[in-house]
Amino acid sequence: MSTEKRPENKSRLLQEAKKLATSPGVYLMKNASGDILYVGKAKSLKARVTSYFQPVIHEHPRTELLLTNVETFEVIHTGTENEALVLECTLIKRYKPKFNIRLKDDKHYPYLRVSMVERFPRIEWTRKVNESKARYFGPFPSSFAARITLRLLTESFKLRDCSDNTFSHRSRACILHQMGQCSAPCVGAVNEEEYKNQVDEALLVLEGKGAEFLDALRERMATAAAEERYEEAAIIRDQIQAVEIVSQTQSVIDADTRLDQDVFAFEQKEGIAHGVVLQVRSGKLLSVKHYDVQNFDGSLGPDSILYDFLSQHVILMQEGSDLTQAKEILVAQLPSDHELLESALGVRIRLPESEVQKQLVNVARTNAKLAVESAKREGAGHGIGALEEVQEKLGLEKLPRRIECYDISNTQGEDSVASRVVFIDGAPDKNLYRRYKIKTVKGANDFASMREIFDRRFSKMDLGAGNEKPDLVIVDGGKGQLAQAKAIFEDLGIQGVDLVGLAKARTERDFKSKEVVSSQERIFIPNRVNPVPLYPHTRAYKLLTHVRDEAHRFAITFHRSLRDKRSIRG
Fold first, then answer.
1. DSSP state of 109
2. Are 355 and 485 within one domain?
3. How far is the C-alpha of 320 from the C-alpha of 436, rounded, in Å?
4. Using CA atoms, how far apart are residues 220 and 242, in angstroms rounded to an integer?
5. pLDDT by residue (tens digit) across 13-38?
6. Which string of b and e fits 513-541 if b means at least 16 CB within 10 Å?
7. What is the β-pairing status of strands 328-330 and 348-350?
8. pLDDT beyond 80 at 530
9. Distance (Å, whole) CA 37 – CA 96
10. What is the pLDDT of residues 371-430, one digit of tens each?
11. What pLDDT is attached to residue 373?
12. Are the beta carbons of 198 and 185 closer than 8 angstroms?
């Protein structure tokens, strides 16, 4: 809905809200298509819903953005506020409204695995924990942290990193042995007992008992910084953080308590929020759960996020967890109105008291902090601010909350494939990425290939849950590629989706001059003659180029894998 209609619309909705009862319940905000945009609970439905439509500017930009899209609302009455809280969480899980904070449970955080039955085991990176004859350390807050720890320990303790097949067939030591980074058990340069001692020393570090090893790393970092070798110092700093996080987690495996506890912590920074829950049962740390906090608005305070985090996690646990429900929740800071949460969820929420409990909370906070830092380092999230900048820069009618980008890849028409990447609220959602083999096109015909992909993408069969229409589609290329994509959209009857072309920067040179001029990245918009330049310092540039580059990477990786398989068969 356009902002010009908003005052009149708010007035109408305000009059409807004034007719509501003062009983507790849940309210559902909907757009003109009937989609649920937001689910909320209220002690008094009348008081809460009318507060939205008062003729004032709301404190949070997210609320103002929501109201520009609300066409109607519905309410569900409950007997108590407790029932309203439980119903709210259930509806959020079922409908996944765009404006509610939601927890995305990532069940595949990385671990390090060490086999306990091999004569010469190695440390391996894995996302699956499914064997009893191995030891697992983690989970790490990111693949970056797991891999940097793997490399550090393998090189420091001279462990093998080759595959079992390579190890069993090697006749002479590899170059890593010559570099002093492997003890070469493959050729008998070290015996089984000596190698076992090397492995045991690495395990001590992962168990949180490698104080001397960490002290030596800190000394190396300080020396590098003092000698102005800052890049090397930063690498060592990351190594220390990665080792500390897993060693701290392992050190509280025996939590020294008889209670079943969930230990909560979350961190937020620059539009990214991440939550961690340590699940302690009968004094044992059985699970470390990581949650990406989706639909996160940086203008919301920590108290609001923690409240939603606690309630949604407990409801999720009650509906489908193998573990028993915790009787107690430890938090670094009590959320406001925590008595309601305790009453509705049937758990006690409190601050840590003993040293062990404080250590548990600190471990959870460290996990959450490093997960946020890793997300920033990897460019995982750009935030609502970047979306608003894109909307303004491109003159879009609605905020591009779901952005999709497509790319075609082939070699002279062979092994032609396409990719789709999806960004939700400025962050990549890799569960929604898709790879396509081109089925109906022979040779190098990008136009026909793109038509096939758009036809498959926007068919009724591919518009179910998780595949809703995007707000914005980006094609890789300039005016010509955009014109082709626009013609395909019109031919297929695709409506309600903004379309732009993103062209890479180009270099121009006047050969009579020594000066080389390079243009900016440019956005081409339908029915507009001149492109919109993108400047590297802007959030819009960082988001849009991230989307485009991710689509290209995803397509070329798939193409190369098919090409390599064909070469092997040939």
1. -
2. no
3. 34
4. 16
5. 999 999 999 999 999 999 888 889 99
6. eeeeeeeebbbbbeeeeebbebeeeebbb
7. parallel
8. yes
9. 9
10. 787 666 655 567 667 888 898 889 888 889 899 999 888 666 566 888 899 998 788 888
11. 75
12. no
Regarding whether 188 and 74 lie in a shared domain, the answer is no
Query: Rounded mean pLDDT of 159-188?
Result: 84
State which of 63, 98, 133 marks the end of a domain. 98
Domain that holds residue 193: 111-251
How deeply is 188 buried, as exposed, middle or buried, from its count of CB atoms within 10 A (0-12, 13-18, 19+)? Answer: exposed
SS3 135: strand
**What does the alpha-carbon distance between residue 267 and residue 275 come to, in Å, rounded to a whole number?**
7
HEC letters along 286-344? EEEEEEEEECCCCCCCHHHHHHHHHHHHHHHHHHHCCCCCCCEEECCCCCCCHHHHHHH
Determine how β-strand 402-411 pairs with β-strand 472-476.
parallel
Residues 364 and 410 in one domain: no
Helix axes 143-156, 192-206, angle to 10 degrees: 140
Given a contact cutoff of 8 angstroms between Cβ atoms, the answer to whether 244 and 366 are in contact is yes
Do 389 and 281 lie in one domain? The reply is no
Q: What pTM, to 2 d.p., does this model score?
A: 0.53
At residue 73, the pLDDT reads: 94
What percent of the chain is predicted at pLDDT more than 70?
81
Q: How many CA atoms lie within 13 A of 275 on its CB side?
A: 26
User: Could you tell me if 63 and 110 are in contact, meaning their C-beta atoms sit under 8 angstroms apart?
Assistant: no
25-39, 304-318, 497-511, range with greatest mean pLDDT: 25-39
Q: Output the six-digit token pair for 275.
A: 């939550």
* 339 vs 58: CA distance, rounded Å: 27
Question: Are residue 224 and residue 282 in the same domain, yes or no?
Answer: no
User: Token pair 């995305």 is at which residue?
Assistant: 104
User: Coil, strand, or helix at residue 221?
Assistant: helix
Q: Clarify whether residues 420 and 533 are in a common domain.
A: yes
Domain boundary among 339, 356, 377: 377
- Residue reference for tokens 């471990």: 363
Give me the sheet containing 348-350, strands edge to edge: 102-106, 284-294, 272-281, 261-269, 328-330, 348-350
CB 150 within 8 A of CB 126: no
Lowest mean pLDDT among 350-354, 399-403, 458-462: 458-462
Q: Which residues pair with 263 in a beta bridge?
A: 278, 330
Which helix (H) or strand (E) segment holds residue 521: the answer is strand 521-524
* Phi, psi angle pair for 337, to nearest 5°: 60, 35
